[in-house]
Amino acid sequence: MQRVVLITGASSGIGRSCAYFLAKQGFIVYAGSRTPNKLDESHANLHPIALDLTNYEKIKQTIELIYAKHNRLDVLINNAGYGLISSVEHASEEEMQKQFDINVFSIFRVCKAAIPYMKNRDEDAVIMNIGSYFGKVAFPLFAFYSASKFAVEGLTDALTYELKGLGIRVHSVLPGFTKSSFSHENLVENLSTKDMQSSYKEILHTIPPLMANIENGTEPINVAKTILNTINNIDAEKCVYVENDAYKISPLKDALTEDEQMIYRFYKLELEGMSVDKNELKIAMDAKEILLKEYVNPPKLAYLSTLCATNKTKLQYAFKEVYKMSIPEYVKKLRLEKANILLKDKIMTIGEVAKAVGYQHQGNFSKLFFEAYGMSPKEILKQNC
Question: What's the rounded mean pLDDT across residues 130-145?
């Protein structure tokens, strides 16, 4: 029996590509949008429908009509959304509310209406919420869009637990840079923020290269294929990354400083003022992630380079270019920072602190402090007291 799918925001971009792709795969697809006339109705399995996501009663009526015709609703794909470019300072009350009304509350409305027709069946049903890596790492001037996508991850988590025993799988799908009409049709710009006299003119330059990357990103068909794989895989992860660079952002986020996070977000763009390419940046950041965990007994340079999938020369060059210090200098910096914290705690002796940060001989530990501060750890300890 053909499975029945409802997709929101299906008139362009990811939603449109997914609607056509699933229809060709034999699904009966109801492609909901404000402009259903933009979709070609020639495919027998594709049914464009008008869908107002701000009106719960109309959403409910649409789902009831689908169920009355097919006696089933197997897959719900919450794809509709747009982005507000604005500083927090300049955003109007209406802009803030609308961003969340479409990106977050519409998902609640559609799920509320659909769940009664999807639960407690012989076959598992699937709800997929199209998120974004903006829902893992925030960008400047995208505070409201990022917050809405963070919210999508939260509601996905909650629904996963709520519906697990009712036969409904829930997933969020996170595309990265994806070619679509998003930068032309799905962005709303706050004109006060964009004014070159505003306080935010120094970061406005980040917007055009970001939009260019979206326009030159992966094809939306790749997102559609990921969605199909998730529908068919009962063991799929709750959070599904499309096979592109988005998957790298989440696990690195906590290991990076604020400045490094900003570089990483735009690492596919022009790295202004830096003489490293994106591969060198990745090498250096991979090395730093390892050293942050292993600074007490750092791996030898040859082994560290193999862990970073490069050679010693390239590793040393990339690290120096990105962090403006050598790897041994960076290890000393980490040890010094940790030692200072431990000395301030006044729980351990100087010898114990030395061993805790990787020095078996207290003399080498004292040398580290003399080089950095011109005084011994004992004198530092006295100052802390």
Answer: 84
